[in-house]
Design goal:
Elements (H helix, E strand, L loop, with lengths): L3 H15 L4 E6 L20 E7 L2 E6 L2 E6 L4 E6 L14 E7 L4 E6 L7 E5 L6 H4 L12 H9 L5 H6 L9 H10 L13 H22 L7 H8 L18 E4 L4 E4 L1 H4 L8 H7 L1
Antiparallel strand pairs: 1-6, 2-3, 3-4, 4-8, 5-7, 6-7, 9-10
Length: 286
């Protein structure tokens, strides 16, 4: 799933490639991606892109005050084309969901792999009224997201820190991968209760959070849209690396599986050397 660093990199890439250019056509290939119908997609045609913004994991293309907003969900992506194919895309079972064609002949496709179609596209004059954006917590890259703000957010929570970091209404933009990376950098168990964190641990978590996200943004800066996925994978230290050695201590990275996701961690760095209970795997082994 694209998270804050990848969406921020896409924002920067599209700012360079879209701003000042006119939109010729917006062509849906999968009607299911459209979550709004008024204004219609055609209202974007003939407008000039004036800005590209990010709201958490949402990407926002502003065309003369009308916004094309997308959430790439788990398996969505944006593919830039220096020259788009002629003609309209054919609706079907392929990954193509939406095509935006510029007057220059360039443009981009929104695609989604897999069978669970969750990619969402909105056309609106007020992005802040989209439900997913309206409920977002503060952006961790904002200048005012200091240690005191993080402490304030966590003070009202009583749950595992892994789930708190992933909660978009608490902190915007962090997902499964970067929450694993942040907790590894902070040397903190993903099962640690937020209510039990000391002032020193909140300080360490804040440092790890900002360092992890800013480093990921810097790695992605200037990378073409098509290579961002590979760049993300190459920079991850524990997430998606079950069975590999921890790059810090050399211990074997372990996994806890859930119904539709999993987390990865280093026992030595994060849990005092003790493996976390993986109830799903325990049931499978019975």
């Amino acid at each position: 799933m694209p998270e804050l660093p990848e969406v921020e990199a896409l924002r920067a890439f599209l700012t360079e490639h879209l701003v000042g250019r006119g939109i010729a056509r917006v062509l849906p290939a999968a009607v299911s991606v459209l979550k709004t119908y008024d204004p219609p997609l055609t209202a974007l045609e003939g407008r000039t892109v004036t800005a590209v913004a990010r709201h958490g994991k949402f990407l926002d293309v502003d065309a003369d005050g009308l916004h094309l907003v997308t959430h790439l969900a788990r398996a969505g992506w944006l593919q830039w084309k220096d020259r788009l194919p002629d003609g309209a895309p054919r609706p079907g079972k392929g990954p193509l969901a939406l095509r935006v064609a510029l007057e220059t002949g360039e443009g981009f496709d929104l695609t989604e792999a897999g069978t669970q179609k969750r990619l969402a596209v909105y056309v609106t004059e007020k992005p802040e009224e989209i439900p997913g954006i309206a409920r977002l917590g503060p952006d961790p890259l904002a200048p005012d997201f200091d240690e005191a703000r993080l402490a304030e957010l966590l003070a009202g929570e009583r749950r595992q820190i892994k789930g708190a970091l992933r909660d978009q209404s608490l902190i915007a933009g962090i997902g499964n991968a970067y929450s694993d990376e942040i907790l590894h950098a902070a040397r903190m168990s993903p099962f640690r209760l937020t209510s039990s964190l000391t002032k020193e641990e909140v300080h360490g978590l804040h440092v790890a959070l900002l360092a992890t996200l800013n480093e990921a943004v810097e790695r992605s800066r200037g990378v073409a849209a098509g290579r961002l996925k590979a760049e993300k994978r190459s920079g991850l230290r524990v997430h998606g690396r079950t069975g590999e050695p921890c790059p810090v201590c050399g211990d074997t990275i372990r996994e806890v599986s859930f119904a539709d996701s999993s987390l990865q961690y280093c026992p030595t760095c994060q849990t005092g050397g003790k493996p976390l209970a993986d109830r799903r795997m325990s049931r499978l082994l019975k």
